[in-house]
Specification:
789 residues, elongated, 6-stranded antiparallel beta sheet, 8-stranded mixed beta sheet, alpha/beta, 23 helices
Amino acid sequence: MNNDINPWQPSVNGNGKITPNQVFPQAAPSSFRRGVLDIDLRRTLRVWPWIFVFAFLGLAAGYMMLRYTIPVFKAYSSINIQQKEEISLGQAFFGTRDPFNDKLGWFRSPSVAKEVVEKLKLQYSATLKGVIKDKDLYNSVRWEILSDSANTPVPPLSFKVFPKANSFSYESGNEKGEAKWGIPFSINKVQVVVTKLRTLSDGTEIICSVIDSWKQAFFVSSNLQINSVKESNIIDISYVDISPERAVDILNTVSTVYNQSLVSEKEESFSKAINFIEQRLGPLNRELDSIENSASQFKSQKGFVGANSNGAIYQQQMYAADQQLIALRLQKQTIQAVEDFVNNPNTKDENLSLIGITDSYLQSLIFQFQKLRVDRLSLSRVVTENNEELKTLDKQLTDVKSNIGLQIFNYKRNIQFAENGYLESLNRSKQLVANTPPDEKILLDKARQQNIKEQLFLLLLQKREEAAIAKASVTVNTKILRPAIAQSNPISPDKPKTLASFLLAGALLPLIFAFSKEFLNRRIISKKQLEKNLSVPVLAELEYDKDSAKKSVIMDYKDRTMFSEQIRSLRANLSFYGTKGQPMFVLITSSMSGEGKSFISSNLARSYSMQGKKVALVEMDLRRPKLSKRFNIKNDKGLSMVLSGQLAPQDIVVSLLNDEVLHLFPSGPVPPNPSELITSSHAEVLKNYLSENYDVIIIDTPPYGIVADAQLLAHWAQVTLVITRFNMTILDQTQEIENWYTNKIFPSMAVVFNAIQMKGYYGYKYGYYYYRKQKGYSYYTPGEEAVNN
């Protein structure tokens, strides 16, 4: 008697331990590893009709995207910033000019962008409300808030405008009203004016809102692109915007602001110098008058007519030394003012004077420091201290301040050396003058003081005239080489590229789908795949029949369907496994439920009975019987009662056909111990009865991949058919079937590939069957069947 064992699970002995020398399934052969995928190029290319369909859909999607995507335009302008020396206080008074790189940095400054925003009123937005997308109305509607002071902050405001013929209605929260274009009106206690530039459709909804000026400035600055050509003073400026007119206006305004800032910066410097000189001239004039009166009274009292010739010579030497010392001390005062300005953040720009400084590099550093300080102050009003751009400005200020400190140290050292030399010359002249008579000496001293004041007074007058001339002749050496102009075609989206991309993407989708199904598929979809993964022969491929669920048996004398012909082919192949003169036992199992065992068993049995053979269809699936249900037979008695000794085999026989010997042995009531019944002594009685009374015995067993009942009946069969199903059996199951074959669990194993489909993605491979079905078999006459086929 055979033991009820399952080779896929380790058996245990009485102590609960795994028994030694247990035979486990072996690994899959190398052919399994090589044949995991069944990738067929012809099958994937079968999706070519869908390529055209999805290409057209992709093109339509591209047009739809272009329809609702807001186009972006780009405007260009070129400016030549000439670097030649200009008539300015930098030559006549300061001797400085801005480096070219500083000019490029100026254009990128957010503070400059804020000036542009305020000049063009870009903080006031007007948008046409759309169903899918909104439309910017820069060229159609302009509006602004009217305020008495330019420094008054702009209040947050948002309202809707509904155009009419010559007027419009507005709505803001609960406030509604009527107003006319271009005439100020009050809304939410704010005075505003809305101007119409172009004709608008009546009833449209326009949303007017205020954007923070600094936020808009950073947006403008980020979209502004500055490019310079190496070894050239030409810069190319471009701006990207959804409105080409606004992009052109921004570029033109940037150039205007640049020119105005240069002029105002230079004029402001000259004005500060003139004011400083005016403040010094008043007290100096009074001191000079006092000295002249004192000298005149002294001469009148002493009766002086002339002076000693030697004293006059010595006096001239003292005059020269004093004049140099005055210039040096003026430079020292200026240097001290610069040092205080740099070190004290509270010092205002109007307190800074650069009179007497001739170092052009130091002057450029001071101007750069001033600009960075202004930029930082403006930026600090709208951002926090952790802002990266603010930190960058702080670092630049620190670097420039360090360079200024180093230059001031060197400048002061040079002044000190020169001052020491002039003091020595002055002291020598004073010693020579000391030898002159006392009255003459007093007069010489008064004359010397008078001369010093006169020289200083004349120097300041000269500097004031030079500053006035320089202020009047301020020029800006910038030339617009290419006026701002916007491209007629948008830079985004690019219509040809967009349509080509969507067309290509749509065409590729079916191919991606096909290759994805090929690579991700883990199910058996072809006989070739089975042959690669199995050493077991594949006896037949059976077409899926849509009537399989409705009919108990499809096979008939008049039936010439593809499925019937394939069952006949399977029957012919099975003849090689039988022995002449002996009954043939065919065991049918599978690795999982639902692969079609019962359906194939019934049709194969019918095929044999059509040959005139005595056929027994044995329903050995005692757990979940299906044959009795398929033939609509009451399953109140059957094999479970025979195997338990309650009935004899002949007591349960059910004849399925009147004119053929096709008997069904139903399973009977479901027993609690199917495996024990199959291995009982009554099973041998059943086998002997079947051998004596039937030519072909078809045994329908449970899936061996689930229970071990089929193995317990393996010694009955001459051939074992393992059923696999198209697009249902997975690759891991083929490995399991290969292990059954390797471990010789079943005798003479063969595989049947069931339910192949002509339709669907994988079904195209079997399309040739359809052709043969329509063309090759049409000549058969229904009703003809060779009895001894």
